[in-house]
Amino acid sequence: MPESPCLVIDLQRVRDNYRALRSALPTARIRFAVKASPVPEIIRLLADEGAEFDVASIGEIEQCLSLGVDPAVMCYGNPIKKATQIATAHTAGVRRYAFDTEDDLERIAIHAPGAEVECRFLASAPQSQTPFGTKFGCAPGEAVRLMVRARDLGLRVVGPYFHVGSQQLDPAAWRIGIEQAGAIAEALAVKDIPVSSVNIGGGLPISYADPAPELAELGAVIAAAAARHLPEHADLVVEPGRALVGSAGVIHAEVVNVRMAPDGRRWVYLDVGRYNGMAETENEYIAYRIETLRDGDTRDEAVIAGPTCDGDDVLYQRTRVLLPTTLRAGDPVRILDTGAYTASYSSVSFNGFPPLTVHVIGAERE
């Protein structure tokens, strides 16, 4: 095994996850959220499988282009972008953009004339495990007004877009969002603007320490809601990240130290922490499963911390984590289901620790 810590990605698991989602939502267009795991081998594999790509920056666009991805299957899905970035994307051949403000819409009209646009609205969905809050999305009524404005600016309106929040555990979230998107589509039809696609975003969950709904269950809820509320001719677009790559990754790490604090709590320090891969432990939203070679020994509660000098570099101190009482410095640990939002969240060199190294296993092409 390469030097610890590192992330190991199983490409076959990525392929299996993609095909499972295709089976759960057979008529949907699957658009991979590159931000979840911008690993070249993953991008090439999903391109071969027929995926589209949600890109959040010029860097992601350039990476996809360098790997042979057709810009026609990319959507610049970040509503926060500069005029120069829109112009660069348009020059590169990207023809679909998301927006949620009039200012961004006008920048798109000027720098990507004639482009397709999706308006992101804030759905009334229940809170997810890692919520966006109100950072993105306009009110549904505002979305109608903005898409009328988009048409008047010479852009091609394709339809509404919502996101139920990352790691969404309540299937009803998509039913609520799709019902609201359907109402927007009806209002647009009155304005002679046909909706050709509805983007239901990502948020599809995976099981960590706690179980998540199965894709088949989510697919059934989504399909039923779409059949009831959306125009018959409208494509369904889904933008998974975690659901495709999360279960395909394992972080291989090592115990650096074990300490009994003055309050009597046992602290286990790992060589991976919040700043080199474990950012999603912020607020302890995501509870990863941890395996060791001593799992047959007696276990007890432990606080889990990273290696830096930052006091916030603590992974779990409220979540009840049981680890073997025999753990010692130098013991290897495996952190499961860490294929999403780990390497892509690593800092460049906080406290001098390098970003998480990624190793890929499995055949890229069948």
UniProtKB/TrEMBL annotation:
Q: Name one GO molecular function term.
A: ornithine decarboxylase activity
Residues annotated as catalytic: C309
Q: Where is the Orn/DAP/Arg decarboxylase 2 N-terminal domain?
A: 12-245
Q: Which domain of life is it from?
A: Bacteria
Q: Signal sequence span per UniProt?
A: none
Question: Would I find Amino-acid biosynthesis among this entry's keywords?
Answer: no
Please give the cofactor(s) recorded in the UniProt entry for this protein: pyridoxal 5'-phosphate
Indicate the family of this protein: Belongs to the Orn/Lys/Arg decarboxylase class-II family.
What is the organism lineage in this UniProt record? Bacteria, Bacillati, Actinomycetota, Actinomycetes, Mycobacteriales
The UniProt keywords, alphabetically, are: Lyase, Pyridoxal phosphate
Recorded GO CC terms: cytoplasm
InterPro entries in alphabetical order: Ala_racemase/Decarboxylase_C, De-COase2_CS, De-COase2_N, Orn/DAP/Arg_de-COase, Orn_de-COase, PLP-binding_barrel
Q: One of this protein's GO BP terms?
A: putrescine biosynthetic process from arginine, via ornithine
Its protein name is: Ornithine decarboxylase
